[in-house]
Amino acid sequence: MNINIRGISKRFGDFTALHGLDLDVASGELLALLGPSGSGKTTLLRAIAGLEPIDGGRILFGDTDATRLSVQERRVGFVFQHYALFKHMTVLDNVTFGLRMRPRAQRPRSAEIKRRGLKLLDLVQLGGLEGRYPTQLSGGQRQRVALARALAIEPRVLLLDEPFGALDAKVRKDLRRWLRQLHRDTGYTTIFVTHDQEEALELADRIVVMNRGRIEQIGSTDQVYDSPSTPFVFDFLGSPNVLPGEVRADGIYLLGATAPIEAPNGFQPGPVDVYARAADFRVVGEDAAAIEGQVVETQRTGVLVRLTVKLAANQQVVEIEIPHPDPEMKVWLPGDPIRLRPAHFSLYRDRPPQPANITEDRSADYAAPGSRVRGQ
Amino acid sequence: MNPPAAPLNEKESAATVADTPFAPLVQTNAAIGEPRLVRWLLIGITLVFLGVFLLLPLVAVFTQALASGVGAYFSAMIDPDALSSIRLTLLTAAIAVPLNTVFGVAAAWAITKFTFRGKGFLITLIDLPFSVSPVIAGLVFILIFGSRGWLGPWASEHGLKIIFAAPGIILATVFVTFPFVARELIPLMQAQGTDEEHAALTLGARGWSTFWHVTLPNIRWGLLYGVLLCNARAMGEFGAVSVVSGHVRGQTNTMPLQVEILYNDYQFSAAFAVASLLALLAFVTLGLKSFLEWRHGSELAAVRGH
């Protein structure tokens, strides 16, 4: 089922949770709403479910205008962050609740209801636990009961609110893989909310990055990670090093680099912010254009070596990660001079000064759209 | 228990386990392992207090009631006035308790599941009967329905007798026992939040089904407790009822009022006989609660355990 959202807005008193968002979700897609707390992602999810009345805009489920439909009529499978299982009911009764609540005319016979419930429990790998109560299950099992309960109503769309938020890291990883598989098998249009970028990248087909009630970027995981359209997106998907640079006619000059780095087209000359992740730096030799610095600290993290480097030009401290072992690489020691070049980076311009609390739209103030470039 | 000192302590605890029933609890958790003197002092104070303030009066009620023999005890019970007071008390409770149960659930539902203006004021208002003296509560109804009250003349024109009659007693009882159920449910429902109700809605349940299948099972123990407290107070209320009752023997006396009248008439054993009946009703209430807790203990734990 396609979900089309047109200009939905929501206010809580003076606080605007959603600023007129548009979003299209393709049928069968697994979509992540990613953002920090207060970004409006959960509000958006609850609005789609009908649990949060909206102040403006429309929500379409396929050809049906769902805006005026009640929660019950929308038939969405909603999985709550803390599962919201019915504590006084057995696992089977929880899963079959939706079927048992149907009007008498549409309700399957009780034997059929039970059969379907057991089948769903098999699907979520909880066969044999149908007689337990929720308190007798582990967190991961409860989560799967909640999922089976939502699937029982054959939902138009499956909505998951921070589905792994309350689980420990190991269980979370397993469940993620399992959910991905389940999505592939069942094909339900699925939207999930998360504040964990790793989770979003690993699980979703597409990611919607949200900030302060607006959508910063919508794109495939590759697009969002490799070409973040705003500094916010870049920042949220991995902490970047931000370097002051200058665009000139022949390229970008970075912090005392004697030669330019190839610049993307369309950037007017002038100062820019260069965003580069730790892993995007390369160590280069004497002859190439580079930023000069000095190693302050080294730390081995498995296959990578993390270097803390103080840049000569402005005393800025940057973190870089380089592979280890590297044929051309020597062992770095604190105090060693080092020459760096960002291999991948993004440019953003005209960053407005940031007041302590920003209430207005920030992303629109960037004069130039960010563009991600590959050096060389 | 600190590991280095463990062998020594274990020996000690083995000795104490044998001679005090509370020892295992205390010994297995060193953090609450008070010296023996303190333990005995605490237990002693509790027992003495319970004995003097609870057990002794209770024993006194039954001794006094049976002082003139079992025959006198039962004849005091089947006295027409006593029987009438029992009937009136049961009638009052039978009306006031269901009313306040429905109201309490509705109020707790409204307060915990919705946001609206004046919610804080409503919560304060629900507490009002707790903070107002029962005598005032009674007088309020005299002011409203008394012969010179606001609605009194209208009521008597229509042949309604409210003050110095059963309706007045019921009204005063409803007022006094108003907060019990709501007060019991509000914190419980606040702690439970609205996620389960929302889940039920997304699964297609209508409002009433959601209440019946999801909310009510979650609150039933709190509700039951509130109802029992409400019932105990409805049967035992003296002050407010005394003001509106008029003390007409055999007609407008509830059991507590009957006890007072008999006592003032120097009919001590009859007074205590009726009092013992009230005490027995309280026992039945408590017994019922314990029984339900015992019978549904695992379910109770399941609901509370989350």
Overview of this structure, please?
The complex is a heterodimer of chains A (376) and B (306). Chain A is an alpha+beta fold. Chain A has two domains: 3-226, P-loop containing nucleotide triphosphate hydrolases (Rossmann fold, 3-Layer(aba) Sandwich); 240-374, OB fold (Dihydrolipoamide Acetyltransferase, E2P). Chain A is built from nine helices and 20 strands. In chain A, helix 3 crosses helix 4 and helix 3 (91-100) runs parallel beside helix 5 (139-151). Chain A is elongated. Residues 352-376 of chain A have low confidence and may be disordered. Chain B folds into two domains: 6-65, no CATH class; 70-304, MetI-like (MetI-like fold). Helices cover 78% and strands 0% of the residues of chain B. Chain B has 16 helices and no strands. The longest helix of chain B is centred in the first third of the chain and has 34 residues, at 80-113. Chain B is globular, with a radius of gyration of 25 Å. Mean pLDDT of chain B is 83; it is low at 1-23 and 302-306. Chain A binds chain B through residues 49-51, 71-72, 74-78, 80, 82, 84-89, 97-98, 101-102, 133-136, 149-150, 152-153, and chain B through 195-196, 198-206, 209, 213-214, 217-218, 299, 301-303, 305-306.
Topology:
The complex is a heterodimer of chains A (376) and B (306).
Chain A: E1 3-12, E2 15-25, E3 30-34, H1 41-49, E4 56-61, E5 64-65, H2 71-74, E6 76-79, H3 91-100, H4 110-123, H5 139-151, E7 157-161, H6 169-186, E8 190-194, H7 197-203, E9 206-211, E10 214-220, H8 221-226, H9 231-236, E11 241-248, E12 251-254, E13 270-276, E14 281-283, E15 291-301, E16 304-311, E17 317-323, E18 337-342, E19 344-348, E20 371-374
Parallel strand pairs in A: 3-8, 3-9, 6-7, 7-8
Antiparallel strand pairs in A: 1-2, 1-4, 4-5, 9-10, 11-12, 11-13, 13-19, 14-18, 15-16, 15-18, 16-17, 19-20
Helix pairs in contact in A: 3-4, 3-5, 4-5
Chain B: H1 6-19, H2 23-28, H3 36-65, H4 70-77, H5 80-113, H6 119-131, H7 134-145, H8 152-157, H9 166-177, H10 179-192, H11 195-202, H12 207-236, H13 239-245, H14 255-264, H15 268-295, H16 297-304
Helix pairs in contact in B: 3-15, 4-15, 5-9, 5-10, 5-12, 7-9, 7-13, 9-12, 9-13, 10-12, 11-12, 12-15, 14-15
